[in-house]
Amino acid sequence: MEVKIRSEQIGFTLVETLIAMVLATAFLVPLSTWLYKNHVNQRALNRFCALSLLETELHRAFLQREEKTIFKEYEVPCRCRVEIEPELIGDEVKLSGKVLGLSGPPLGRMTISYFGRKSPLVPKTSTWKSSL
Amino acid sequence: MSSGAKIDYADGQKGLTLLELLAALTISSMAILIGAQIFGWNQNQFYFRMRESEFLQRQYLLQETVRGQLKHEIVSCKSDHLVVWNKKEEWEVVTALRKRFPGLETLTFNCIEVDEHGALILWNSGIQPKLVEYEWIFTHKGLRQSHRGSWLL
Q: Which end of chain B is more exposed for a tag (fewer CB within 10 A), N or C?
């Protein structure tokens, strides 16, 4: 009598694979959507808050005719760091500000410019003084 | 095989045993339960995310409304009491905004001007202030956030 021994099945059947895929999708799709939306919403809220703080600092620096670099860290209403760098372009002073979150790239950048510096444009030198 | 041999038909079993039936019922009820949980959780997450988006949208709207109010002439400015005038009538901004935004807990203003030395001081009256800083605490559907901003006049 001939005996046929079926080789032991290795791997998954199509039905098993499909069931596994359906289950994995059922968990992974909502999870990834939730993570993505959570990240986007949090970032949008932080950005809204941080940009307003940067704008306020820029407005203050503009009114005070600030010519020094400003660094400010905030805890409230949101954790961020504001940096304002003045740049002299002829008679114009350009205040370039950026706001950084806890990590990652800057949350936003803004610039504001003014004319009419507090200090004279050309510092008085001894040569200039002696020429008087 | 001889004709008198006994044939066992047990191998061709049809139907399920009680144990198998119970197991199938348990497994399918568990699958339904898990499915319902996932669906419910997904619905909740969708609701939370929508609420956050709506919260942000309301805050942007509030900011633009506050800035719109500051385009009028400022009559007086004392913390949570800002009166503006549009050449026809004058009104108190905080009270007007509270009616429009019920979630507005607090809204305070700082009107600032620049003195002759270039320092920022609080504005009282006279020429319009140079800068108005505002701060609010806003609540919407259980979410609460404070915000600080400014408007250059």
A: N
